[in-house]
Amino acid sequence: MEISGAIFDCDGTLVDSMTMWRGANRWLFEANGLDADAVDLVALEALSIWDMCAYMHDELGCEATAEELYEQLCAHVRDAYRNEVEIFPGAREFVAELAAAGVPMIIASSTPVRELRCALEAHGLDGYFRDLVSTEDVGGRDKEFPDVYLEAQRRLGTPRETTWVFEDAPFGVQTSRRAGFAVVGLMNDHDGRREEDVRPYCDIYVHGYAELSLPLLRDYERPVPPHGAPMRALLVAGSPEPSSPSLLTRLADEADYVVVADGGADACRAAGVAPDLFCGDGDSASAEAADWARAAARACVDFPSEKYATDLALAIDCARHEAARREAPLAVTLTCASGGRPDHALAVVGQLTAPDLASARLVEDGFEMRVVSAAGESSWELGPDAVGRTFSAVAVAPDTRVDETGMRWELSDKPMELLGDLGVSNVVTSADARVACRSGAVAAFLLGA
Q1: pLDDT at 51
Q2: Extended strands (E) in 357-429
Q3: How far apart are CA 252 and CA 269, in angstroms?
Q4: Distance of CA 392 to the CA centre of its chain
Q5: How far is CA 239 from the centre of its chain?
Q6: pTM (2 d.p.)
Q7: How many Å apart are CA 184 and CA 163, to the nearest integer?
Q8: Degrees (nearest 5) of the Cα angle 143, 145, 150?
Q9: How far is 448 from 386, CA to CA, in rounded Å?
Q10: What one-character-per-residue DSSP string does 281-298 give?
Q11: What burial class does residue 238 get, using C-beta atoms within 10 Å of its C-beta: 0-12 exposed, 13-18 middle, 19+ buried?
């Protein structure tokens, strides 16, 4: 997705200051004889400083005027910015990356401009931003309203649909997304934010700047209603037991788009399969294969080794973005993914059960697994080559009911327990063998070459 401009929140997004702010608000209450525990300080975060000070005077009966409270708090905050608050790791490097690419940037914050300037100067960020906008500049309307983001966009002069907002607070993420901006939600492990209040409203959700890069933003594409034929994506993972070069070549020939995740670069190099996109953290591919993949791929998206998501989850996201660009449903074929650790193998099945996939299969030299679901690909015709082979179906969703025909033990509208063993080790007896899912979903395995 194009990025023509960037709007950054400051507190909790660029500088690690939310603990300071909560302490500062508590300090102001206590310094003026008010009980800080009698109010919800977190709920006051969305307010501008002026509105909070006016609330303290008008609603809580503080003797100091709103103006006096305002100046007390601002002086306290400026001192903390200079002497206590730290910049988030990687923030300066990411801002510098955007600046080097010519992306104009601006600050949009609930903090007054004078204090914002102090925060940026204290951490060497002041030269990167075209301007600073405070909620005080838009009539004091807080970030529950889009005014501060719209004013920042106006000053940038960039199209809203390609202007990204970088926020940490749920109200900021939700408001900017409703206003039509692309949104990055930045989370950390100590500000008390809840993932469920942020992630659903983000285009990209990360746990720090190490997981962000300009190539990642450019690779992202907001989902659109798909239509037409599915885009067939081949995802090559980094199992220590890779698929054979002949299988990899065949699967790549069938694919419209090839994504290689980290260690899969070695298997692709051996097979001579050049990826469309190479992604990952570089901790499992050999240096030679990683260099080859970066040179051969049309695009690369790097991620840190210390991250929350797996390389496979990130690779599937990259395939989703390409399918969205093509406005097509996504059909995923995964390979080089089943060997090695059993926990990884189970997580692979979980990734392939995502409801937005038109179809999903795992293909290795010794077996094929397909997700058969009522919401997606609802049946699998096994074909004549399956006769005599072992077939297993394991429910991977609640309330699953299946039909199995053309097998030694046939099932009709049979309920299957989640992760139960009822459907394990059947045998295909007919060229017309078929498994169909009436409700829920199964991981259906056809074993043996």
Answers
A1: 87
A2: 357-363, 367-373, 379-381, 390-395, 400-405, 411-416, 423-427
A3: 13
A4: 33
A5: 23
A6: 0.84
A7: 11
A8: 90
A9: 9
A10: -SSSS-HHHHHHHHHHSS
A11: buried
Three-class SS of residue 330? strand
Closest CA to 322 of 368, 255, 378, 237: 255
User: What number is the average pLDDT over the span 337-344?
Assistant: 83
d(CA 447, CA 407): 14
Q: Which helix (H) or strand (E) holds 445?
A: strand 441-447
pLDDT over 70 at 24, yes or no? yes
Tokens of 302: 């790097």
Cα 313 versus chain centre, distance: 9
**pLDDT tens, residue by residue, 200-244:** 999 999 999 999 999 999 999 998 888 899 999 999 998 888 999
**Amino acid making up residue 91:** A
Give per-residue pLDDT as tens, 293-311.
Answer: 999 999 999 887 777 778 8
Q: How far is CA 306 from CA 133, 338, 375, in A?
A: 34, 22, 34
